[in-house]
């Protein structure tokens, strides 16, 4: 009986996240109606409050899901680049490029910071930072990067990619801003190289 209740709660949570993700992407956080959203999946506002506390908590869950997917996708692109250095550059560029995806742009890069605050403090960003730190540590050990503090370098690289994505998303002409953001991200990262590129 308890197992079924837990499964039902997990199903309800998943339904609410799917519905919210769609509503936030289409209408934006402010315009998304929680009554419409819960009715769409056959649940009550009580289910939303029970699972997420409020609309802000639901947005946090949606942002966490999308941002985690973004990090995973960027890491996969990085792995395919061939080595840790190329992977680091490819991962950062991929994260910045995702600012062109309408759902990412609206939910994660525009509404997320406006409602949830500083993205660098989000749990999903923390796990991304740790992955970058491990890559930086390997590159320092391989003497590809200067022997700087790995956490500082990871924070600066992650922050640069995040802020570049925020800039692209908020700009009036994201397609025009994107190549400038990626080129400058690469230039910043190359400043850490032991031997200049």
TrEMBL record:
SUPFAM superfamilies: Homeodomain-like. Residues 10-70 form the HTH tetR-type domain. Keywords: DNA-binding. Pfam families: TetR_C_41, TetR_N. It comes from the Bacteria. Residues 33-52 bind DNA. The keyword DNA-binding applies. GO terms for molecular function: DNA-binding transcription factor activity; transcription cis-regulatory region binding. This is Transcriptional regulator, TetR family. It comes from Rhizobium lusitanum.
